[in-house]
Write a structure and sequence with these properties.
about 475 residues; Rossmann fold; Serine Threonine Protein Phosphatase 5, Tetratricopeptide repeat; DNA Cyclobutane Dipyrimidine Photolyase, subunit A, domain 3; five-stranded parallel beta sheet
Length: about 475
């Protein structure tokens, strides 16, 4: 008996419930496991306009595609060492998953759950197609600490404020870690022949033929690759250094110049190279100051909160949670947006952050808030344009965190920053980069010469407050 393991954002061996269950299938029935990763391409999955609700997961941005390519390259030989071949393909999972399962003679298909509305809808269609073909289909948890339906308010609804959500979610037991499966029997000759036919028929392809690296900026090889090593092994190595970055997290997490001020595990978590349960138990198991552990674990639950909202509230990527913000008088300007994207606003901390993003695929969280605030409040540019830029350039771009965080800064989301809270980049720089190390490092990559600020911070703040008065409750 063969089990087909459909991988998505769960590119790891440790604490992988769908993988563990697939392994149990193989051992119980003297069978094998074949893994499959699909670059999803749906007829109706073109990038939608404002208000659209597409089917399927959000297409990966350029930085996430770069990361995923290298993560898959790291995972494939490690799966092979367990006796599990990894197949690649691109197209519509509604057609591909049943076809591959049937070709392999699979009795069961397993996968890890997804929670965004478009991905959930697609997975339900795939499950129906698999079941109709007479093959069992099972989904498993693994991307979150708490399934979104396991916590609710006293009235039975979803949470829209973080603190009570955190309290309820933290009370839900997480369960034990799943061990890495032991060596499985390799596919027999019949399964190998079936895989060869799938390749000959162009149903499956090589990793390079997925095209994940197509259209990536050519200089990323000399920039982003210097800063990151995708894959589960690198994530576990970073986790082994927990004491380095967690030991002073509560006080140092807002210092962007310090490379160990945060965990830098977010891109590994985003691609599923490490599970949130692994991170939670590792943090709680360290003999470190409770204030540091508590502060960092709170960030894990903020991620849970973002997914809780994404599960329960349709279309957060396009529509503000606070509906009155649909009438906010943004003053869309391609020129201002471009200056912000290039790090040419003339506001040093913002420009340093945008240059860090472009050269590394990442930005310190404190600086993310400041750059987003300048764009949406001082520059009065629509929050969804900044969200799209981050989606395309962040290696940790997350389908829930990214839009929820942008709405938080813009003041239009759940538990949002008050409309009158406008980050002052100069004050933030003096407070969090007092010796100018962060700003100096990244601005040194810009062409020499001063840049006139695109906005006056004081005047633009006043203009923003006047605009917010229009939609104020």
């Amino acid at each position: 008996m063969t089990t087909l393991l459909w991988l998505r954002d769960d590119l790891r061996l440790t604490d992988h419930e769908a993988l563990s269950a697939s392994s149990d299938d193989a051992r119980a029935h003297d069978g094998c496991v074949v893994a499959l990763w699909i670059r999803e391409q749906l007829p109706d999955s073109a990038e939608p306009g404002l208000g659209a609700r597409p089917l399927g997961a959000r297409p990966l941005g350029a930085a996430s595609r770069w990361w995923t390519h290298r993560s898959l390259a790291e995972l494939a030989p490690r799966l092979a060492e367990l006796g599990i071949p990894l197949l690649f393909t691109r197209g519509d999972p509604r057609e591909i998953v049943p076809r591959v399962a049937h070709a392999l003679g699979a009795s069961t298909v397993r996968w890890s759950r997804r929670y965004a509305p478009g991905a959930r809808a697609l997975d339900a269609m795939v499950k129906s197609a698999v079941l109709q073909s007479g093959i069992r289909a099972h989904s498993h948890p693994g991307a979150l600490l708490v399934e979104p339906w396991l916590v609710s308010t006293a009235s039975g609804g979803h949470y829209s404020v973080f603190t009570p959500f955190h309290r309820a979610a933290a009370a839900v037991p997480t369960g034990p870690l799943r061990a890495v499966p032991s060596l499985l029997p390799e596919p027999d000759a019949a399964i190998r022949d079936a895989m060869a036919r799938l390749a000959a028929d162009r149903v499956t392809c090589s990793l390079d033929e997925l095209g994940l690296l197509d259209h990536s900026p050519p200089w990323w090889r000399d920039t982003v690759e210097q800063h990151w090593c995708p894959g589960e092994l690198a994530a576990l190595e970073r986790l082994d250094r927990t004491n380095t970055w967690l030991g002073s997290y509560a006080t140092s997490r807002d210092l962007p110049a310090d490379p160990d001020s945060t965990s830098r595990l977010s891109p590994h978590l985003r691609s599923g190279e490490i599970s949130p349960r692994t991170l939670l138990l590792a943090a709680q198991g360290r003999s470190l100051p409770s204030k540091d552990v508590t502060a960092w674990v709170r960030q894990l639950y903020w991620r849970e909160f973002c997914w809780h909202l994404t599960y329960h509230v349709p279309n957060l990527r396009h529509r503000p949670l606070r509906q009155r913000f649909e009438d906010f008088p943004y003053q869309e300007s391609p020129e201002l947006l471009r200056a912000w994207q290039r790090g040419h606003t003339g506001i040093d901390l913002v420009d340093a952050g945008m240059l860090e993003l472009w050269h590394t695929g990442w930005m310190h969280n404190r600086v993310r808030m400041v750059t987003a605030s300048l764009l949406t409040k001082n520059m009065l540019q629509p929050w969804w344009l900044g969200e799209q830029w981050f989606w395309d350039t962040l290696v940790d771009a997350d389908e829930a965190n990214n839009p929820v965080q942008w709405q938080w800064v813009a003041g239009c989301g759940a538990d949002a920053a008050p409309y009158f809270r406008v980050f002052n980049p100069d004050l933030q720089a003096r407070r969090h980069d007092p010796d100018n190390r962060y700003i100096g490092r990244w601005l040194s990559l810009r062409e020499p010469g001063g840049i006139t600020p695109v906005v006056d911070l004081a005047e633009s703040r006043r203009a923003a407050l006047e605009a917010y008065e229009i939609i104020r409750d």
